[in-house]
Amino acid sequence: GTAGWAALPFAWRGVRLHASGARELRVRLTPSGDRVALSVADGTGTPVASVESLVLRPFSAGQLSAAPADALFEVEWIVAPGSASDEATRTPDGALPETHRDLSTVPEPAPEDVLVTLEPGEATGPAAVREATVRALTLVRRWLEDERFDASRLVLLTRGAMVTSPGDGAPDPALAAVWGLVRTAETENPGRFALIDTDATDASHAALAEAVRNGERESALRRGQLRLPRLARPTPAPLVPPEGASWRVDVTGSRSLDALAVVESAEAVRELGAGEVRVAVRAAGVNFHDVVVGLGLVDGESVLGSEGAGVVVDTGPEVADLRVGDRVTGLFPGAFAPMVVAEARALVRMPEEWSFVAAAGVPVAFMTAYYGLADLAGLRRGESVLVHSAAGGVGMAAVQLAREWGVEVFATASPSKWDQVVAGGVRRERVFSSRTTDFAAGVLAATGGRGVDVVLNSLAGEFVDASLDVLACGGRFVEMGKTDIRDGERVRAAYPDVSYRAFDLAEAGPARLGEMLRDVVRLLESGVLRHPPVSVWDVRRVPEALRFMSQARHVGKVVLTMPVVGGRV
To answer: Where is the signal peptide, in residue numbers (predicted)?
Structure first.
């Protein structure tokens, strides 16, 4: 060939495998123009494989270097246009598509779409993969062999086979293998198969008919939202931290999450003052305040990150309760970093069985709810509370605390997340949409027109007005949001029988924060409270994590993991 050029495979035809298990191969190439034929045999001359035709194309190093940087694509699961994920009309009860465990129960004549559910088997590990794929292969073969189904499409339903977003967790390897098998069957038999992966929530079950009607070969349902796989250019390259601990993630002045950068930070390695400890951060919680800071919408010296978990690597003077090596969780500024300096009073030791990720999702969510409901609102047993955004970290914590304190709970959330709110203990008829102000009429109807004693708010605009309208005489409105803080005097003038209080958790002070956190940890450790679900991201992907939160795609908490760095500085 010509210097600087290489011949790369372009098209294959007539590829056949005759045998397997050979330890050495002999390959015979027969050139013919721009293509070659291949004959592959083992050491005894027994045929192993053959290729009727392999077309080659010349490719130079210059062509490779000239390829555009955005030529790479990846699969991204997008929300289907017009997906009935929230307020759109759902399939009425009784009209849900019929599902089957196998083909024996399919009626005659067969419907246009036959839905079969593939449940995980009892086996684990490699045996589970084999069990699932053998069952799927048997099903596919019977489907293709039975003339009754010639005009029908087999729709296979799985649970957890695909990861459509970080909040999905790890995929089921056995069911993921089934998807690969059925994809091949669909390629060889176009129009005969489809795959739908669900999360088994009530909202997704109600949206199943929508997914089937969509006609896609592959789709997924997450909390009632239909998602479709599409090729997209990959997200920007991850941040590249330097060696050592003297860095943190920070804003760069541009109002874009993609403009976040790793910057040098001497704060984490400075000399410790009285009552301070140095913590090697292993995980950091993400809050909506971080999204606002990341977008450059906050004036002042706000830094990214305010909570996390890690290991104490150094202690300053007058620190008696913590020692080097203690695993701790709590509040500290600049948490999107491998090393921070924190006030010892705002930290507590983690229970041994807790992971750093689980611990990092506790402080802000539970302490914000605790401080707002107990300290500021004075919520008491027998009273009632309306918790907005009840599927978020603070909302889930507030629901749990209120129920533990014997309080009647009403809640709002995106309809696609109602299952999570109900699972947290709120009665279905007391969960309302956070997308409209209809919750006001629902709350008043449920309380006989009286309203609720307390509102824990994070919404804005007309939702604030509607929430003030549902407060009972003597009610307390506690505002934890940052985007629509009202003037207290004006609120009192318009609603003389209620109180209005906006707050920031930091105002509680380190001593009170430590007290609340110790109480929360005790309740979690005893099983009275439960950890919120967590979506985990590497800190190098922090722009994606903040964007994920800004789009309200998460349930519970978003947590960043940090690289492990050295000890005492």
So the answer is: none
